[in-house]
Specification:
The protein is an all-alpha fold and about 190 residues long. Helix content is about 45%, strand content about 0%. The protein contains nine helices and two strands; from the N terminus they run αβαααβααααα.
Length: about 190
């Protein structure tokens, strides 16, 4: 399954490159509701529009926190908080660390939007050899950078070796991410 992650990353980056600059240039101050639900394009979903989506219609009153008869963007469920519940386009393979989506990883100022500058910075970070493309060599180089960074952070006494205590402390800080110890060889 891990061999799919680079392909998914590449697909997301290619899709974002086609629309990233346009979205950043025309980003409204308030995010509109998803287009397929907001049939009249007014930035909110009324009861009639919600009726076309049975699960949303069923929860309409609970979601309408200000009781104005319309669901604004803030009253709609967030795709990044839903995780792997089967929401189209954002399954378990699209989540990054901590269940966050790829777009959240690109959003360096955490304003909920990815600007052209944030996208460019993310692309530059992924394009390790700076040839203007993300390819297998970049993927391998980036993986090596992450492993080296993990090791530097884990090697607290900076002696170039990890003691069992340093390894356990690093694994406790980072969960199970990072290099895993090799299993002991089976006795013969």
């Amino acid at each position: 399954m891990t061999h799919r992650k680079p392909l998914i990353l590449l697909a997301v980056l290619l899709a974002a490159s086609a629309t990233g600059a346009t979205l950043a240039a025309t980003a409204p101050t308030q995010k509109p509701a998803p287009a397929r639900m907001d049939a009249n394009g007014d930035g909110a979903i009324d009861r009639q529009e919600a009726a076309a989506h049975p699960r949303l219609a069923q929860r309409f009153d609970a979601r309408d926190t200000n009781k104005d008869g319309r669901l604004s963007h803030d009253e709609m469920p967030r795709w990044h908080a839903r995780g792997g519940d089967g929401h189209r386009g954002m399954g378990r393979h699209h989540r990054g660390p901590g269940g966050q989506g790829m777009l959240r990883m690109m959003d360096s100022d955490h304003d909920g939007r990815v600007s052209a500058a944030e996208y460019q910075a993310f692309f530059q970070r992924m394009d390790v050899n700076k040839d203007g493309f993300i390819d297998q060599a970049d993927r391998e180089a980036r993986a090596k950078q992450r492993r080296e960074e993990w090791f530097r952070n884990a090697d607290t006494d900076k002696d170039g070796k990890l003691s069992p205590a340093e390894l356990e402390a690093a694994r406790a800080r980072m969960g199970t991410r990072g290099p895993q110890p090799m299993p002991a060889p089976a006795a013969k």
